[in-house]
Amino acid sequence: MSDRQQILATILAQIEPFNKKGIAVDEATRFAQDLEWDSLTVLDFVANIEDEFDVLISMNMQAEIETVGQLVDAIEKLAKA
Q1: pTM of structure
Q2: 7 burial class (0-12, 13-18, 19+ CB within 10 angstroms)?
Q3: Which fold would CATH assign to domain 3-80?
Q4: pLDDT values of the chain reduced to their tens digit, one per residue, 81 residues
């Protein structure tokens, strides 16, 4: 399994408790539109992701991340930094 696949699998597992609608989640899934997360849910989720990967996701970076795939890319970059 590649690093990207591992990151994706971990993120999908982290999304599960927040996926109240039970929709199928993939890299194209959008947090606000598809999962219908509010800002508080996003904050909780981001805190979990930061703890899981031991990274810090800036507010500017958060604003640019709309999909699961974009989050995987961001974590990949941050983990290598």
Answers
A1: 0.92
A2: buried
A3: 1.10.1200
A4: 679 999 999 999 999 999 998 999 999 999 999 999 998 999 999 999 999 999 999 999 999 999 999 999 999 999 887
